[in-house]
Design a protein that fits this description.
about 575 residues; two-stranded antiparallel sheet; two-stranded antiparallel ribbon; 23 helices; 6 strands; about 5% strand; globular
């Protein structure tokens, strides 16, 4: 895309005619117009920008799961509910996350869309997905705060830096990387991967050699909260709820997967494997890290006490001491800091995308993705200073009720509604073709999360409280197709898209068309026909228009619209 460099600030559109030949009706702010930093934050990612190989995209996406919150979450679950119930809950949550992540990952990679844009077309509508943007933004800053707390603990252990000052350092250190977008993120993840792999594996190698009986003792661990030996349904449900708080991680994976190159006959095996590994596959490593983190904390419990055992730096040091001695502390600190930088650049990046999506619809302005980095980090820093780490289980258990209701509704639409014809087979994300709210996905999420939150707070009894996240998932999975069936799917599209439809695929998605407002060329999937402009407009100019009154949804396009005719093909399987 050609950059548009002006001092404007992403103003609402003006409908007056152009002042002269070649003068665009909207000029974007310099940062918003620079796609080397903006990374198509509110748009379809064009094929011309998807220059990375499937393995590079997958490697970058998986680099973001280096975080050590898994260690803290796994240790917290097992310490609270014991080995048997704790491990069962970790594995159950991983299975749910994996299954719901498959269709979402494939949709994002196929259509070049982030989680917000997929949500719009998967049952939520144009404004309905603003709520999920907030849910996703809260995921990014909650986990940024959690990861930042872990890094601050490591810096305090290593160099004596006060934890409060460490919070500020962990926040500031990611800004230069996130500011530069996908290119810088890919380099950081690649360069730091060897250090991370060594640091992740080495403690377990040391314990396997020096303390081979630890795993046996871990298997009979009943926790630190007086949990009964053996399996408990209540403990299983509560532990699963905590682990399911990570379900929105698929959104961060999707922020990378949208840059996956087109799937072809030549690359389809590598493409499928990369999407599976970088999409839902993250949770396989995540579950292993939760169990491994719980094990390291168990081994270190007697030496450092419960409070420090839940902080990943202390168990790491204890595990490395037999081989590294006094060098265990700097080695563990390096590993923790590298791990947390790898994940927090992703948290900050994804947060900037979700806030951009939210505010562009609410304010009809887009100053640029990079400005929202500072908003996301400011909220995360506030949470760190409030010591959110101390309320880990309760906070994550509550959040998971909302997160799983959203993800399950999107998965239900992609797997059920689109396959049986209750919703369009493709993902429509442009304002010009969507209703403001679609009750299928949005209604399912609101009902499911409301009921599950009431259950979480004990309104329906002890078992419902423990299994509130299962209630959220079950209701969303049932209600999304049910509401779509009851409404006959009429809230998915406000009007037909001239280049899409049942059994229709875009003739040439790489063909470019010039937006009548900003006069920049975009690939066909990012273009809508506009009766107000009497021509094509890009999806972002359409989103920022505060004066058109959504005429396109009320009357046919005025005048010819230079969009190609569709080619009818066999529907995808």
């Amino acid at each position: 895309m050609t950059d548009i460099a002006t001092p404007a600030t992403g103003e609402a559109p003006r409908q007056e005619p152009q002042e002269g030949p070649g003068t665009p009706r909207r000029n974007y702010a310099r940062l918003a117009a620079d796609e080397s930093r903006e990374d198509y934050s509110l748009r379809y990612a064009p094929h011309s920008f998807r220059r990375w190989s499937p393995s590079t995209v997958a490697g970058t996406a998986l680099g973001g799961i280096a975080y050590l919150a898994d260690f803290a979450i796994g240790a917290s679950i097992v310490f609270t509910y014991g080995f048997t119930s704790g491990i069962a809950s970790i594995l159950a949550a991983a299975t749910i996350i994996f299954l719901t992540g498959i269709p979402i990952a494939r949709a994002c990679a196929k259509y070049g869309l982030d989680m917000d844009l997929v949500t719009r077309g998967a049952g939520f509508g144009y404004f309905g997905s603003t709520l999920t943007s907030l849910i996703y933004a809260s995921f990014t800053f909650i986990f940024f705060a959690l990861e930042g707390s872990i890094m601050a603990q490591a810096m305090h252990q290593a160099v004596g830096l006060p934890v409060e000052a460490g919070y500020l350092v962990t926040t500031l250190i990611v800004i230069p990387i996130v500011f530069r977008g996908m290119g810088a993120l890919a380099k950081v993840q690649a360069w730091t991967q060897p250090v991370w792999i060594v640091g992740m594996v080495l403690p377990f190698v040391v314990l396997a050699v020096e303390s081979p009986g630890s795993w046996g003792a871990f298997g009979s661990f009943t926790g630190t909260e007086g949990a009964a030996p053996g399996f408990s349904w209540i403990a299983f449900g509560l532990g699963t709820g905590v682990a399911l708080s990570l379900i929105a991680q698929i959104g961060e994976q999707a922020d990378y997967l949208r840059f996956m190159p087109a799937r072809t006959e030549a690359n389809k095996r590598r493409w499928n494997l990369a999407v599976l590994a970088a999409g839902p596959g993250w949770v396989v490593i995540g579950a292993a890290k939760q169990i491994g983190g719980a094990f390291l904390a168990f081994v270190a419990l007697e030496a450092v006490g419960k409070t420090h055992a839940l902080e990943p730096i202390a168990p790491q040091i204890e595990a490395l001491k037999p081989w590294l001695g006094t060098f265990a502390l700097p080695a563990a600190a390096l590993f923790v800091i590298v791990s947390q930088v790898k994940i927090n650049v992703t948290n900050a990046y994804s947060g900037s995308l979700s806030w951009s999506n939210f505010f562009s619809r609410i304010t009809h302005k887009h100053p640029g993705r990079v400005w929202y980095i500072f908003l996301n980090l400011a909220i995360a820093l506030t949470l760190m200073e409030m010591n959110m780490f101390a309320a880990l289980n309760k906070l994550l258990g509550f959040y998971s009720n909302v997160g799983i209701a959203w993800i399950a509704a999107v998965a239900a639409d992609l797997v059920i509604n689109k396959r049986i014809g209750l919703s369009p087979r493709y993902i429509e994300f442009k304002r010009a073709y969507l209703h403001a709210v679609n009750p299928a996905g949005f209604g399912a999420m609101v009902i499911a999360s409301t009921v599950s939150i009431l259950a979480f707070f004990g309104l329906f009894g002890r078992y419902a409280e423990a299994f509130s996240t299962f209630i959220a998932a079950g209701l969303s999975l049932v209600l999304c197709p049910l509401i779509a069936w009851l409404t006959k799917g009429k809230y998915y599209l406000a009007r037909p898209n001239p280049v899409n439809g049942p059994g229709v695929e875009i003739a040439d998605i790489t063909a470019t068309h010039t937006c009548a407002v900003c006069e920049t060329a975009y690939e066909l999937p990012d273009i809508a026909d506009c009766p107000v402009q009497a021509g094509p407009v890009c999806s972002l100019c359409c989103s920022l228009d505060a004066e058109c009154g959504d005429v396109c949804r009320k009357e046919p396009a005025a005048g010819p619209v230079p969009l190609p005719m569709p080619v009818v093909r066999e529907p995808a399987g």
